[in-house]
Amino acid sequence: MPPKKKKGDDQEEADPLFLGRFGTSLKIGIVGVPNVGKSTFFNVLCKQSIPAENFPFCTIDPNESRVAVPDERFTWLCDHFKPPSKVPAYLNVVDIAGLVRGASEGQGLGNAFLSHISGCDGIFSMMRVFEDPDVTHVDGDVDPIRDTETIFEELRLKDIEYLEKQIEKVHKVVARMGDKDKAAKLEYETMIKCRDLLKEGKDARKCKWANKEIEALNKHLLLTSKPVIYLINMSIKDYIKKKNKWLIKIKQYLDEADPGAIMIPFSGALEQRLLDEPEEAKQFLEENKTQSNLDKIIVTGFKALGLQYFFTVGTDEVRAWTIPRKTKAPQAAGKIHTDMERGFVKAEVYKYTDIKELGNETAVKNAGRYKMEGKNYEVQDGDIINIKFNVTTEKKK
């Protein structure tokens, strides 16, 4: 007979913790070797104009901006309620300068750039597959797989260097306290396990961890623990035709190196053209039977950070409130105002699909789809919520 599971084992397996920073002010960094299209992508993503010149380290200080998360639900709610104030959810994006081989040892301003990645919570890994003689490649020729291996090898080396120092520090505590400090012992053992896996060429995010190990690792926020989305930067011609010699090779590589990874083809040159020529954009897309992939990239990046949002609606304002996944109703209410969390009574909840189908809140209530939820309710992405709360002033002693 198989051994009996201890109480809580099923919960441990069913509800794995999120490996990474827990919060709402999270950032995703655009990472890659020099001259693969990072700054061009950042420009069109945020509709800004920063240098995107043809030489390595054109970007030195990280450029940061935020971009609205596209959502047809938000657009429909704004059209329906017609409020003067419309506040969408935002994705914070950072344009990080190009990494080169040896960055973990300081090559090409490497240490500064790695610290910029450390300040982010997710990675857009930019893979160049376009050929352009006017845009030089730091290694002489286009090879997105080599470039990607360079990037993540440097991240692993930096994590190993960091863990070696931390292991030495925590070892002193464990040696002094022994089993009396169980938290330190767990952290010590988890860091050794992670370091050894990194030395085998395995990124922290690709390994299987128990929840208690994730809690230990989340104190350190390793570079290789961050979620990664692979962006395949193609020429306009190849993107329209949906053909490039590297696409199949990259898919095969990721299937083996990072199973389940998200890979999104796009064309930075096309996105720049659509931004520069807005009047001709619609006609160009229709004639070539293609479309922009920016919306998909933004939404995917937002979700990769473990984020979602709920709506508050009315004739004065429609707003999307960003929260981590699995947030309970009182904590979601606290995003609006701390008093709402402190005096939380209940959450009145309904779905966008309900109001779109039935036309207004009264009809939603009459149809029995207006739900009353308590303190243990886990807010779902896209919930429309009205918080009921009651805060009483404490009597002075």
Helix-strand sequence:
HEHEHEEHEHHHEHHEHHHEEHHEHHEE
Strand order of the largest sheet: 2-4-1-5-6-7
Helicity level, as a percent range? Answer: 40-55%
pLDDT under 50 segments (min length 5)?
A: 7-12, 49-61
Compute the number of strand runs: 12
Biggest beta sheet attributes: 6 strands, mixed
- Average of per-residue pLDDT values: 88
Kindly report the oligomeric state of this protein: single chain
Strand content bin: 15-25%
What is the 3D shape? flat
Distance between the termini: 62 Å
Rg from alpha-carbon coordinates = 24 Å
| Number of distinct helices | 16
Structural class: alpha/beta
Give a short overview.
By secondary structure, the protein is α/β, with parallel strands linked by helices. Helix content is 42%, strand content 17%. The strands form three sheets. Strands 2-4-1-5-6-7 form a six-stranded mixed β-sheet, with helices on both faces. A three-stranded mixed β-sheet has the order 3-9-8, with helices on both faces.
What this model shows, in words?
This protein has 397 residues and is an alpha/beta fold. It is 42% helix and 17% strand. The protein has 16 helices and 12 strands. Helix 2 runs parallel beside helix 10 (268-276) and helix 6 crosses helix 7 (211-217). The longest helix has 34 residues, at 144-177. It is flat, with a radius of gyration of 24 Å. It starts with 8 loop residues before the first helix and ends in an 8-residue tail after the last strand.
